[in-house]
Inverse folding.
């Protein structure tokens, strides 16, 4: 189970690294927007060719897929609404919505890693690398905005550290569940993650990208999609 924990945390560690990098690397707003677009494209590719592919491979029906997509959507919308009420939709709420999206994505994804590890399913090094790389713009874009808004590095480290820790714990839980609960698989978690990500892309990441990067954010989205597909 410790191996699963380390795998889950390591696969999401780029969130933490990118979140702190903004304090030493000054990234222009246009570049932040382009990177956010790149992250959106990479996530669209991950939804279409990884998460949904896992659901199809498990033989999940269309109705059940729809139900779990909607569950993931409502989890994100509920959490995002709470963030807006706490921090304000026009303040740090927008960037924190993207952070929430990283949680909605990373926790189920790490749970799936743990399940696959327990089941003896080989994890592709290329896929893990793609996950690690796609997290960079997903964390860099909101972190740069939050840092410019006055967040101290300790606060940023705490936020992303909790996200990475939660992902590691989720991988351990997935490993434990797969070894102790009959018939447990990651198809539902993959569908849940897909629904949450689709909602996050529309509500947070893509508007964030266009607001800061303009039309060039569209180019970043296409490039991110293409590179993620090739990987």
């Amino acid at each position: 189970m410790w191996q699963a924990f380390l795998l889950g945390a390591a696969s999401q560690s780029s969130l933490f690294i990118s979140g702190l990098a903004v304090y030493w690397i000054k990234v222009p707003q246009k570049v932040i927007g382009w990177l956010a677009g790149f992250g959106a494209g990479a996530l669209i590719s991950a939804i279409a060719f990884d998460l949904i592919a896992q659901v199809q491979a498990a033989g999940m029906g269309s109705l059940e897929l729809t139900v779990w997509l909607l569950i993931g959507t409502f989890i994100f919308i509920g959490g995002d609404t709470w963030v807006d009420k706490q921090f304000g939709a026009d303040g740090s709420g927008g960037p924190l919505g993207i952070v929430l999206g990283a949680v909605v994505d990373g926790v189920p994804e790490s749970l799936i890693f743990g399940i696959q590890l327990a089941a003896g399913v080989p994890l592709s090094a290329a896929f893990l690398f793609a996950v690690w790389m796609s997290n960079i713009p997903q964390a860099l874009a909101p972190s740069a905005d939050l840092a410019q808004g006055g967040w101290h590095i300790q606060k940023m480290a705490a936020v992303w550290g909790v996200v990475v820790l939660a992902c590691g714990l989720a991988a351990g839980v997935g490993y434990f569940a797969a070894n102790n609960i009959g018939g447990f698989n990651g198809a539902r978690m993959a569908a849940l993650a897909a629904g949450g990500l689709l909602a996050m892309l529309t509500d947070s990441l893509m508007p964030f990208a266009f607001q800061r990067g303009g039309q060039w954010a569209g180019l970043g989205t296409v490039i991110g999609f293409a590179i993620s597909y090739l990987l």
